């Protein structure tokens, strides 16, 4: 049997203790993170999470030994690529992912680095005066010229496409232009919690879209509750208001006189009477003097409104129409 170094046994034991101590265990990639920035990130996580770097095979052994108590934790071994470290915390996995993503910072492109996204040089003044830098830009494929005593990039240019390697010359040019296209930070590969493995694509939540989805779900649930007349703390007021409005509409349309409907029924009847009278007003003897006087008073009162506030009236009619359509939409499920 091959001899196992004592330090390896101790390392596996310490890793197991960390895994046993915390409910949420993840694997992170620390590749290409400068030591200074890594220390700053560690400090920002102090009291929130523990990061432990180790050899991948030793982490695998520790996960296997802990799998009996934490079923399926060995699944983290499938996500160990790069410069792997364990991260242990009591935070929700989604919160942990967000904290790590928010802590990432921009950094210069290093020669040999693979670009995760297109590296773009924007159009405009570089701030450099005419000189050798103009030729340097042109050599890496950036169209540039002298304009008003300064070197200017003629159009936005992709100097390195996503997935391509950054050359030494491009890296030097970007550095001189103070363009830092790379993102440096702790890359969370996967997290274990309660027998489930969450990968980074699951943890990457669009907060604005999620909030919009929740709000939309609430609106749909609210409308369903109102339309189905299912009273809740949130919908009871709207249900009662809608029922009252419909009862009033039925009463007025059916000329059912009550203390609430009498006034609108009389108002509606009078409006219809005046409308009919206005149609025959030009016919001699069709209407009496009292009715003619009422028509005249209505016309005089309405004249300045038509001339001065016609747009406002149209807007009010549109709003009323929209409200009626909305009410009709809510009531569609009742029919």
Structural features, described:
It is built from twelve helices and twelve strands. Helices cover 50% and strands 15% of the residues. Helix 1 packs across helix 3. It has a five-stranded antiparallel β-sheet with strand order 2-3-1-11-12, with helices on both faces. A three-stranded antiparallel β-sheet has the order 6-8-7, with helices on one face. It has 335 residues and is of the alpha+beta class. The C terminus is likely disordered. The longest helix is centred in the last third of the chain and has 22 residues. A hairpin with a 2-residue loop joins strand 11 and strand 12.
DSSP strand count? 12
Beta-strand residue percentage: 15-25%
Strand arrangement across the biggest beta sheet: 2-3-1-11-12
Distance between the termini: 81 Å
- List SSEs in N-to-C order: HEHEHEHEEEHEEEHEEEHHHHHH
Q: Helix share of residues?
A: 40-55%
Write out key terms for the chains shown:
335 residues, alpha+beta, five-stranded antiparallel sheet, three-stranded antiparallel sheet, 50% helix, 15% strand
Question: Could you give a quick summary of the protein structure above?
Answer:
With 335 residues, the chain is an alpha+beta fold. It is built from 12 helices and 12 strands.
How are the SSEs ordered, and which strands pair?
Blueprint: H1 6-21, E1 24-29, H2 35-44, E2 49-53, H3 56-66, E3 84-89, H4 93-102, E4 105-107, E5 119-121, E6 124-125, H5 132-139, E7 144-147, E8 150-153, E9 157-160, H6 168-176, E10 182-184, E11 187-193, E12 196-199, H7 200-203, H8 207-227, H9 236-253, H10 262-280, H11 289-308, H12 310-331
Antiparallel strand pairs: 1-3, 1-11, 2-3, 4-10, 5-9, 6-8, 7-8, 11-12
């Amino acid at each position: 049997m091959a001899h196992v170094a004592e330090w390896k046994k101790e390392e596996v034991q310490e890793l197991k203790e960390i895994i046993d101590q915390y409910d949420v265990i993840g694997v992170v990639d620390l590749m290409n993170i400068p030591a200074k920035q890594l220390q700053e990130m560690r400090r920002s996580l102090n009291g929130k999470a523990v990061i432990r770097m180790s050899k991948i095979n030793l982490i695998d052994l520790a996960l296997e030994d802990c799998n009996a108590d934490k079923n399926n934790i060995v699944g983290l071994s499938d996500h160990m690529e790069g410069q792997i470290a364990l991260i242990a915390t009591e935070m929700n996995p989604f919160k942990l992912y967000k904290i790590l993503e928010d802590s990432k910072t921009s950094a210069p492109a290093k020669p040999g680095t693979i670009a995760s996204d297109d590296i773009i040089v924007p159009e405009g003044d570089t701030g450099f005066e005419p000189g050798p830098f103009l030729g340097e830009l042109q050599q890496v494929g950036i169209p540039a010229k002298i304009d008003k005593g300064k070197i200017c990039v003629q159009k936005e240019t992709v100097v390195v496409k996503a997935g391509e390697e950054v050359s030494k010359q491009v890296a030097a040019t970007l550095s001189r232009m103070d363009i830092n296209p790379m993102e440096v930070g702790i890359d969370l590969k996967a997290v274990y919690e309660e027998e489930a493995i969450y990968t980074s694509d699951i943890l990457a939540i669009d907060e604005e879209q999620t909030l919009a989805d929740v709000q939309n779900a609430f609106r749909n649930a609210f409308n369903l509750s109102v339309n189905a007349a299912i009273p809740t703390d949130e919908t009871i007021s709207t249900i009662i208001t809608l029922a009252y409005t419909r009862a009033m509409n039925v009463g007025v349309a059916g000329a059912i006189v009550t203390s609430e409907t009498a006034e609108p029924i009389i108002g509606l009847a009078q409006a219809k009477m005046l409308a009919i009278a206005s149609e025959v007003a030009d016919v001699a003897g069709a209407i009496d003097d009292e009715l003619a006087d009422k028509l005249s008073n209505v016309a005089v009162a309405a004249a300045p409104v038509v001339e001065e506030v016609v747009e406002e009236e149209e807007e009010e009619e549109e709003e009323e129409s929209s409200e009626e359509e909305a009410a009709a939409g809510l009531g569609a499920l009742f029919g």
